[in-house]
Amino acid sequence: MIGFVGVSGFGVRVAEDVGVCGRGQGMVMMAAKPLKVNIDMKGTPVWTLREATSEDAGKIAGLGEVFSAELVDSLILSSEGTALVASVNLKGGEEGGDQAQLSNVVVGAVVPNVSKAATVPGGPADQKLTMSGDIALLTVDERMPEKEDVEKKLLLGALRKLKLAQVSEAYVTIKKGSERKTVLESSGFAASSEEDDEETLFANLVSLNPDPQKKIA
Asked: Could you name the domain of life of the organism this protein comes from (predicted)?
């Protein structure tokens, strides 16, 4: 199943993302403060969509706490260059109180697992290699402003990279009732199969023309 983190509620990053105040015998949960990212003249958060590298593995693993850094690194290396991250520059005072601006902070990622298979429909003359992409991980920091927009652009960017890499189909398995189904369907995925409490959605990259409407650095 996909390592989705955030909207569907895997319960990760609780200690870091919310504050807890004691009040008598009870506890009061406080909402996480939005990250202090730079904004443009229109008030839109400024962030960069770029290819992921092995150097990002630890940061991505820290975001989701679903996969280890070693596994994320392995997925990135096998992704055929389709793994992407969202990075921002944070204003002073974030992440430990350092007043200097922090640059290139990873706040989201999408990591497809690309697999190859040989098909022989009619004999050696018809042999061909097909590739498919399993969206193994999609995560965005809960504190990121306009989180849903970042999430969708990451996903569309990965689909675009997969198509350019000659991958014909992308798929993802989610729990039934997951709120992530909305962003998946709006990005070109369609439900195809169900089993127990899971369902698998597919995106036909031959017919789709995914566009994140954001430059991939």
From this structure: Eukaryota
